[in-house]
Write a structure and sequence with these properties.
alpha/beta; UDP N-Acetylglucosamine Acyltransferase, domain 1; eleven-stranded mixed sheet; nine-stranded parallel sheet; 17% helix; elongated
Length: 264
C-alpha cells in the first residue's frame, strides 16, 4: 500500500506488500522489499536498497548523501538487509565515493537520532542506541551493543558481542566480548551478553583467562598477546580475540592503567 501523498521516483521499485506512509519520499534507483513498512515523513534516498520486513519509523532518513567535502554527487550506495528496525529521525548515509557503499545487515535496531555515516559496515543483531554517532568507515560486528550517546571515531572497529557503555567514546578498536567505558577504556567482559548468547562455562572461562592477561596484567599489548599464546589455552574464541587485536590499524582499547603499546 502506498499513501497517495508519498513521492515515489519513477525508477524506484516497491514490493507489492510494502507499506509506504504519508509524505514518504523514495529516491531514484532505490528499492523497498517485501513486508517493509516506511512510516510518515521518512526518506529513502537514491541508490538505496532496503530488504524485506524492515520497519522504518517517522522521519528517518535512509540513504542520503554522505557528509564529506570530497563527495560531489557521484553514484554511491546504501544496502539495508532484512528485519531491521530504524527508529525516528535515525540517519544512514551512502558511500562517500563513486561505487562505494554503506552496509547494514539483518535484524539490527537503530534507535532514535542515531547516525550511521558513509561507508560503515554493520553486521547482524546490533543495537545502536539513541543519539549514538558512528563516523565514516566504522565496522560493527554481530551482536555488539552501542549504548546511548556514544561516539565512535572514523575507521574504528567494534568487535562482536562487545558493549560500549552510555556516553563513552572511542578512537581505538573495541575488542570482541568486552565492555568499554569512558574514553576507549576496557572495563570488564560482557559476561551477561555472552551467556545470553549461549556461551557455556568452558567458553567463557577461556575468554576470561585471556582477558585477564590482555587487560589486567599491566603488560603492553604485544607482550600480553605473546603471553596468552605461549601459556594459555587458545580456543577459537580466544584466537578470534587475538586476531582482532593483532589486525588493528588504530590500536585497541586498553585496560585501566595498562601500559600502551600497539602492534606495528
Amino acid at each position: 500500500m502506498i499513501d497517495p501523498s508519498a513521492r515515489i521516483s519513477a525508477t524506484a521499485i516497491i514490493a507489492l506488500d510494502a507499506e509506504i506512509g504519508p509524505n514518504v519520499i523514495v529516491g531514484d534507483h532505490s528499492s523497498v522489499g517485501s513486508g517493509t513498512q516506511v512510516m510518515a515523513n521518512a526518506i529513502i534516498g537514491p541508490w538505496t536498497t532496503v530488504g524485506s520486513n524492515n520497519t522504518i519509523h517517522y522521519g528517518a532518513i535512509v540513504g542520503h548523501d554522505p557528509q564529506d567535502f570530497g563527495y560531489h554527487g557521484e553514484e554511491s550506495y546504501l544496502e539495508v538487509g532484512n528485519g531491521n528496525i530504524i527508529r525516528e529521525y535515525a540517519t544512514i548515509h551512502r558511500g562517500n565515493r563513486a561505487g562505494t557503499k554503506t552496509v547494514v545487515g539483518n535484524e539490527n535496531f537503530l534507535m532514535i537520532q542515531s547516525h550511521v555515516a558513509h561507508n560503515c559496515i554493520l553486521g547482524n543483531n546490533i543495537i545502536v542506541a539513541g543519539g549514538s554517532l558512528l563516523a565514516g568507515h566504522v565496522e560493527v560486528a554481530d551482536r555488539a551493543i552501542i549504548s546511548g550517546n556514544c561516539v565512535v571515531h572514523q575507521f574504528c572497529r567494534i568487535g562482536g558481542f562487545a558493549m560500549m557503555r552510555g556516553l563513552s567514546r572511542t578512537s581505538r578498536d573495541v575488542p570482541p566480548f568486552c565492555i568499554m567505558d569512558e574514553t576507549h577504556t576496557v572495563k570488564t567482559l560482557n559476561l551477561v551478553g555472552l551467556r545470553r548468547n549461549g556461551f557455556d562455562h568452558k567458553r567463557v572461562r577461556a575468554i576470561k583467562n585471556a582477558f585477564s592477561v590482555l587487560f589486567r596484567s599491566g603488560l603492553n599489548m604485544p607482550n600480553a598477546v605473546a603471553k596468552v599464546e605461549a601459556e594459555l589455552e587458545v580456543t577459537d574464541d580466544v584466537r578470534h580475540l587475538l586476531d582482532f587485536i593483532k589486525s588493528s590499524k588504530r590500536g585497541v582499547c586498553f585496560g585501566k592503567g595498562q601500559a600502551v603499546g600497539d602492534f606495528d
